[in-house]
């Protein structure tokens, strides 16, 4: 029983993450489905009104049938208007879908109950299964709405329909409600799995598989996005790093050992810096770390020493040889800088560190003409 409960709780958590993290896709999907559903409803209604007199002898449209037509036209216009809007949140899209469902079910109940008191309900069982399965909404909300529609339908059946017909209508609609619960859960399960698959491939596309940090494209895009969002002076720092004599490690100890050192270095960076910082592999044995928010040269010096010390310690303990890295850093405090300038300044700092000797770091404060500070661990 505990295993079953844990699986249910895990599934609920996955669904919560899905609605939280995939909100933009959910909004877009709901708007597309809303537009398509309203158009389909209008087309089906027109066909029914046109064909029913030929298929059902003595049938003629009631007031509710005729009122349903302009209401469906308004739903189409309403859906098209919101579909063309540039930004609609997931919550707004769900509200629009609830409005659509409410209008459809309201007319279905009126037509199946009040306008046809002696005829079996045709549309309610179909709508119970079809309509809720269309949209991306939390299961609790969908089930609550279905129960409300079902209770209203049962009340109308008991009030307006003859008993021998009403009992079959209630039975068929309750059965449809049960089927709908199964269908909705299955569809939501598949949507969550599709989301997880997309997130998995997205993660693979932005991460360097060997070092477990961001790849070059993802890290540069993250930095550029941060700088563009500030729209003015920024507090940040960029560290450029590369491993000393990495080619020699590959040549003398093999590429497998070189890969282990890269993996070790990536883990050290992830442990040393914050989860909000951008940590990436720039290519080969080159890495970068972009610190968002306030920082000082003293903090950068502390981080540089920590990285170099941990690299030397872990490689020596795990693989039995020495390894080091050179680091160049640029620090900005309430200053404006372009993306290109930032990388150029950090690259110059790295070049200066290498000129000082192996295992050194250089920290520059951006002042147009940068001041310099160099050090050894």
TrEMBL record:
CDD domains: GGDEF. It comes from Candidatus Copromonas faecavium. The chain crosses the membrane at residues 33-56, 62-83, 90-111, 117-136, 143-164, 170-190. Residues 234-366 form the GGDEF domain. It holds the Pfam family GGDEF. One of its GO terms (molecular function) is diguanylate cyclase activity. Keywords: Membrane, Transmembrane, Transmembrane helix. InterPro entries: Diguanylate_Cyclase, GGDEF_dom, Nucleotide_cyclase, Rev_trsase/Diguanyl_cyclase. This is Diguanylate cyclase. The keyword Iron-sulfur does not apply.
């Amino acid at each position: 029983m505990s295993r079953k409960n844990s699986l249910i709780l895990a599934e609920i958590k996955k669904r919560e993450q899905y609605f939280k993290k995939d909100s933009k896709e959910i909004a877009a999907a709901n708007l597309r489905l809303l537009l398509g559903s309203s158009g389909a409803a209008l087309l089906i209604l027109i066909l029914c009104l046109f064909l029913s007199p030929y298929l059902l002898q003595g049938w003629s449209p009631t007031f509710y049938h005729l009122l349903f037509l302009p209401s469906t036209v308004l739903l189409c216009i309403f859906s098209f208007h919101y579909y063309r809007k540039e930004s609609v949140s997931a919550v707004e899209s769900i509200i629009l879908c609830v409005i659509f469902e409410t209008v459809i079910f309201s007319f279905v109940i009126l037509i199946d109950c009040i306008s046809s008191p002696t005829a079996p309900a045709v549309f309610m069982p179909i709508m119970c299964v079809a309509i809720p399965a269309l949209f991306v909404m939390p299961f609790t909300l969908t089930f609550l709405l279905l129960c409300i529609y079902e209770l209203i339908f049962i009340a109308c059946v008991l009030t307006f329909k003859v008993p021998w017909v009403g009992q079959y209508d209630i039975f068929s609609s309750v059965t449809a409600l049960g089927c709908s619960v199964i269908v909705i859960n299955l569809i939501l399960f598949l949507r969550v799995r599709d989301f997880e698959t997309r997130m998995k491939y997205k993660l693979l596309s932005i991460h360097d598989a060997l070092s477990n940090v961001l790849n070059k494209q993802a890290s540069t895009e993250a930095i550029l996005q941060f700088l563009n969002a500030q729209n003015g002076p920024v507090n940040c720092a960029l560290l450029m790093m590369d491993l000393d004599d990495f080619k020699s490690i590959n040549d003398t100890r093999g590429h497998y050992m070189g890969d282990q050192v890269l993996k070790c270095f990536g883990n050290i960076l992830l442990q040393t810096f914050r989860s909000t910082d951008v940590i990436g592999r720039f290519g080969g044995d080159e890495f970068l770390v972009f610190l968002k928010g306030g920082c000082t040269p003293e903090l950068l010096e502390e981080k540089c020493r920590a990285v170099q010390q941990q690299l030397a310690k872990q490689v020596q303990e795990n693989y039995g040889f020495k390894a080091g890295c050179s680091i160049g850093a640029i620090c900005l405090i309430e200053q404006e800088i372009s993306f290109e300038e930032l990388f150029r300044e950090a690259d110059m700092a790295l070049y200066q560190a290498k000129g000082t000797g192996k295992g050194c770091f250089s920290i520059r404060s951006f002042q147009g003409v940068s001041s310099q500070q160099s050090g050894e661990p």
